[in-house]
Each structure stands twice: as C-alpha cells, then as structure tokens.
Amino acid sequence: MNFRTKGLFSILRFNPTPCETFSNHHHQQCRTLVRVRLKWVKNRSLDHIIDTHTDLKAACLLKDAINRSSTGFLTSKSINDWQKLLGLTVPTLRFIRRYPTLFEEFPHPRYPSLPCFRLTNIANNLHSEEQRIFQTHEADTVQRLCRVLMMMKNKMVPFQSLHPLKWDLGLPDDFDRTLIRKYPDCFRVVKGPNGLCLKLEQWREEFAVSELQKSHENGELGSGSGGSGGYRQFKREYSALGFPMSFPRGYGAQNKVKAWMEEFQKLPYISPYEDSRGIDPNSDLMEKRVVGVLHEFLSLTIYKKTKRNYLRSLREELNLPHKFTRIFTRYPGIFYLSLKCKTTTVAIREGYRRGKLANPHPLSGLREKFYHVMRTGLLYRGKGVGMIPQPDNLGNVEEDDTEQEELEEEEYESGGEFCEDEEDSEVEVDSDED
Q1: Of 154, 176, 205, which one is at a domain's C-terminal end?
Q2: If you average pLDDT over residues 31-50, what whole number do you get?
Q3: Residues 6+ apart with CB under 8 A from 179
Q4: Strand ranges inside 280-406, DSSP E
Q5: Are residues 177 and 288 in the same domain?
Q6: Which of 178, 205, 232 finishes a domain?
Q7: Which ranges of 137-283 would DSSP assign to H, the alpha helix?
Q8: Are residues 50 and 191 located together in one domain of the fold?
Q9: Euclidean distance between the first and the last CA atom of the chain, given in angstroms as a whole number
Q10: Number of domains comprising the chain
C-alpha cells in the first residue's frame, strides 16, 4: 500500500488467544486489523526544523570537504555535481554563494575565471570549536557507535551505509581514520559482501540498555507507562514497557485508537539489542520489536531523526521486514514523517518539546551557532561579513522567538500526499477482520 496516496493507517487490535511462545512466555498473539483512516497531520514545528537542518547539514558537509582538501579550497567545477549528494533543492554553486560569512569566494590562482571557495575566519573558528566538542565527548561518541553496531544482525555495518549517517549520529568527519584506529578494542574493519564494513570487536553489556528502558528506569515516562519497576521486571522476564505516544490533535481521543494503543503497549518489549531471529516475522511481537528498533536507532541520533532511505539501507542488518516503513504511518503517535525538501524524513515525537530538542547534545548547540552565522550572512550579505560576531560572542543562539511561537506545537490537517479523501471525517474507523 502506498501511504502517500492511500492515507490509510492500519492499526492493530489483538485477540487474547496466544499463538506461539518466545523465551518460554506465551505472549505472541493473533491479530485482527482495524483500519483507521486518518488525514495526514502536518507538524509545522518539526517541518521547520527539518527544513533548516537541510541547509545546515549541506553547509557543514561543504565545510568538512574544504577542510579535507589538500589545497584548502574547492573549485566551483568540483562541487558542480554535488547537489543530490548534499540533499539540496538548488544548485550547489548558488547555495554556497548564499553564505559569504562561511565561504569566501576568490579566483583560482592559475585560472582566474574559475571561482574557488575557502572557509572564512569565523568558519574556521567554528570548526575548531566543533573539534573540541568531539574530543570532550569522545566517550559518548564511541558508545553511540558501539550501540549502533550492537543492534546489527552480524554486529557490523557497511561503510557505504554508515557514511551518510555521520552528521545524524554526530560522528567526526574522519571517524573512519581516527576514531576507529584509536579504539581497536571496540572496532575492526573487515571485508563484507557489500564492501568494507565496520565490525564490533567486543560486546559491552553496559551499553545494551535501550533509551526506552533507561526512561522507564529513571521514571521519566511516569507510572502510567511502566515506571522504574517495569525496567527491573524486564531484567527478570520480558515485561510490557510502553512507548511514549503523542497523537496528532484529536486522534488519540478516539475510542478505537485508545483501545489499540492500550493493547499494543501491553505486548512484551523485546530490547533492540536482543537476538530476534527466533521470533515469528508475522507476529505482533515482531511488530513491536521493529517499533523498538526504529525508536532506539532514532534515539541515538543527535536530532532524533534521519532520512527514511538511510534506514532502508540498513534493513537487512537491522533484521527489519521488507515493508518496515509502513510502521511509521501505522504508529503516528510515536513517529512523525515529513516530506520537506523533496525527501522523506522520520522523527520520534518524544525527542521534541515545544518545537525544540528535549535533551540537546552539545554538538547541536554548536550547530545552532553555525546556522546563526549562515542566516546572518544571508540577510546581510550585501553589507559585508564584518557584522558577524566571533563564536565566543555568539552565546546561546536561539531561533527568533516570534517565529518559534508561531510554529510551536502547531499541527493541522493537510490535503497533501498522505490524504486519501479530503471530504473524509477527521478519523474514520472501519472494523474489518483479515
């Protein structure tokens, strides 16, 4: 089913008759489907974040490419075909010229008609500050990368799938040459069926606790979702840890949506770090396990989001079903899909509160400074770059309060691609058993 054209969220109800067992617990259950027809609900706040991060990520990737260059600059010819690689909706040359506060244009030393670009002083200062953050939080970065590998079926991932995730996972640009070599007890480079792969060298039991389990252990989700007792119970047997859910306005109050949500939350939670190959791939338990894996992976990213295609490239390694992306539309209370910038991005709703990251990483603060310099340069590029303060004077840069207030927590129905019929009611539930 194409969710862009059908707009049909298949929501589960459960028959209490057990079908199979897992780890000696009778809890796999037969399913009947309740089809819930929902209009696509757009979250303007999250869409705005994804929109701004598209340009921010592209600028950061260009900054890293210039730093990698042996000449210290890039020519317009060399970046001409990078538009798709950078995820831009405009030509790369036009994009880089938008931000003279970061990228200084000058003629090539040997070919004056060839434009070249190098980093400005403030861009170099921001890069140096970024390197200090990487060094200070290196242990956290190593743990995050280990946990990503620990979720993989064979405890390894191809570099071709990992490199596009560098920015999302907060990995240094040269992590494959520096970080991996520095920690041979954690990582090893091996040859795989899809080229060179990064393999986990040593299993770390203390890392094998998911973010959902930590939240329950700390009581962050409240007693209604299991509380700390739920996590302790998990250590003894597979208990029902509930995911935090935040439905689009009006949908969560529907009785059948509530019934589905309660039954889904009662299913046992299988940690994404557990071996799942013994679970029936067509069972309800596997579906909750898939939700848990996607939730954990997104929780490990800096912004609690990534592109859907990046996850699709890891489908086999994460032991996900062929059509696992339907999970995102089936559980709109946990995930949010955005179609901004001609791509599909998926985020976990709990990662944001009032339009901002709930638990920001230090790297996100540095990137806010970077974006502030970008935006100021765009607004005042005709007046010179001298208007930009140095990084030490930028302070805690935040988005314009007026703009943010307009976007905070605003969700509304859209007649976009996710809608099946604009004349449908807000929520239409048809009980059809399959």
Answers
A1: 205
A2: 71
A3: 138, 141, 142, 145, 171, 172, 187
A4: 305-307, 335-338, 345-348, 352-353, 356-357
A5: no
A6: 205
A7: 138-151, 159-162, 166-169, 179-182, 211-217, 227-236, 255-266
A8: no
A9: 15
A10: 3
The long-range contacts involving 377-383, CB below 8 angstroms and separated by at least 24 positions, are: 377/98, 377/99, 377/100, 377/101, 377/102, 378/98, 378/99, 381/98, 381/99, 381/100, 381/101
Kindly state whether residues 332 and 237 are assigned to the same domain: yes
Which domain covers residue 111, as residue numbers?
45-130+361-407
Q: What is the CATH number of the domain that holds 143?
A: 1.10.10
Which pair of tokens denotes residue 292?
A: 């848990």
Q: Is the pLDDT of residue 418 over 60?
A: no
CA separation for the pair 219, 225 (Å, rounded): 9
Give the closest residue to 148 by CA, choosing from 268, 280, 302.
Answer: 302
Angle between helices 284-299 and 138-151 (to 10 degrees): 160
Rounded mean pLDDT, 237-249: 75
Query: Are 121 and 165 in a shared domain?
Result: no
Radius of gyration for the chain, computed over Cα atoms and rounded to the nearest angstrom: 23
**What is residue 247's DSSP assignment?**
P
pTM for the model: 0.81
